[in-house]
Each structure stands twice: as C-alpha cells, then as structure tokens.
Amino acid sequence: MRRTLFLFVSLFVVLSLSINAQMKLQLSQELTGERPTSFMENNLESNLKLELPPEVTNPGGNEFLKMWFIGILADATLPFGDFGEGWSTGFSGHVMVGYMIARGLLLNLSSGYVTFSPKESVEGYDASFSWIPVLLGLNYIFNPGKKFMPFIGFGVGLYLISSTVSGSLFGQTFDVSATTTEFGIAPRLGAYFLLSAAMLLSISAEYNMIFSEGSSINALGIMFGAMFAFGK
To answer: What does the pLDDT average to over 31-38?
Structure first.
C-alpha cells in the first residue's frame, strides 16, 4: 500500500513539473514571439550567416563591369538589292575589342575583311570586290552575367572599298582597280553564351548599309566566334 502511494505521488510530481515547464515555454513564445533553438539549429544558423562572394549575392552582371573583351569572328555576308544581283556571298574574318562601360552596355570597336566574287564569270576576265569596315559600336546586353545573354546593338563608321577588274582585250592585258572610303551603319542583334568566367560564344547578324554617291550597298553578315574577357 505504501509502495503504491509512493509511486503515485512521484508520478504526480513529475507530471506537474513537466506541465509547468511546458506552460512557461508557451508563455515565453507568446510574449516574445521567438522560438528557442537547439544547439544544432544555432550552429546551422551561424553558418548560413557567412558572407558570400559579391557575384553570388548580386548576380546582376556587375561582375562584367570595367572588363575588356577581345573577339575573333568569322562570317558569311549575303549581298542584297542591286549589289546582290552582281555579287555572290562573301566570306570574311573580324576582330573586335570591347569594354563594359555600364551594366549591360558594351562599347566596341570592330574591323574585318570581306571579299566577294562575281555571280557570273566571263571568260578572260577576273573581278573582285571587297571592303574593310572600321566600326564603333554599342551593344545593349540583356541578362548580363547569365549563361544566355541576347543583345541588340548599332555600329557606325567607315568602309574602305576596293574593286578590281583584270583581263585581256584585243591581245592587250589590263588591270583596273579602284578604292574609295564610304560612310555606313550596321544595326545588329545576337546573343552571347557564357562558356566560362573568361570565355563567351558569340552569334550575331549585322546588316551593313554603306552610303555612296547616288547609291547604297546593302549586305547581311552572319557572324560566329568567341570572345575572351580579361582585366578584372
């Protein structure tokens, strides 16, 4: 009988202490609005508060600010209009140097060499047509810092144009060449694909409009190449 009574009293005391502790815990939560954390939770929370690199906490493309780019591009240029009636698709190589002047704004200088051949050949005659563009441009990049970065842009500058005709006439050979420098513009659009922190793949289309006296030359260039970032 005494043993049973002792067990009953002990159980009552334990239950009372447990209920009292639970009431204090709930009261503390209601008053402070805070939930006590365990040692593991405190340790995990402190680890999560470690400072992360700026490019992780601010992935807005600012990592490209004040960086230089060098691009090497190849392209096929399709003639249009009157120019397209006499000349076939041209092929060329280009180089580009760019600098990020603001988030998403790439100032660039580009140049290349494009050569065309006549659509129809005439026996005994050879002809060629080429130009060297020197363009100052500005590209606006969407989603800077992401893996896929579309862009639109505009270039303006000079085209150094050369044409040659050679052959023979009445037993006499001749070689006639002419060079001229014309003003032109080149709206463009394309995309950059981020391959690594220092290398981008570039695909773009650039419409060349060259203005000469009394006429214009129009051609669409499809460009493909790589760009390398450095300087930061």
So the answer is: 50
Measured in degrees and rounded to the nearest 5, phi and psi for residue 143 equal 55, 50
Which pLDDT tens digit goes with each residue over 68-86? 999 999 999 999 988 888 8
Please state, rounded to an integer, the average pLDDT across all residues of the chain.
78
The whole-number average pLDDT for the span 147-163 is 96
Expressed as residue numbers, the domain containing 36 is: 2-48
Read off the pLDDT band of 46 (50, 70, 90). very low
Same domain, 157 and 189: yes
Pair (124, 19) in one structural domain: no
Domain CATH number, residue 92:
2.40.160.20
Whether the CB-CB separation of 98 and 192 falls below 8 Å is answered with no
Task: Say if residue 41 is in the same domain as residue 79.
Answer: no
For the entire predicted model, the pTM comes to 0.69
Indicate the number of domains in the chain.
2
Picking from 76, 74, 82, 73, the residue whose alpha carbon sits closest to that of residue 218 is 82
Strand ranges for 67-214 from DSSP E: 68-80, 90-102, 105-116, 125-141, 148-169, 172-196, 199-212
Same domain flag for 65 and 44 = no
Classify 152 as helix, strand or coil: strand
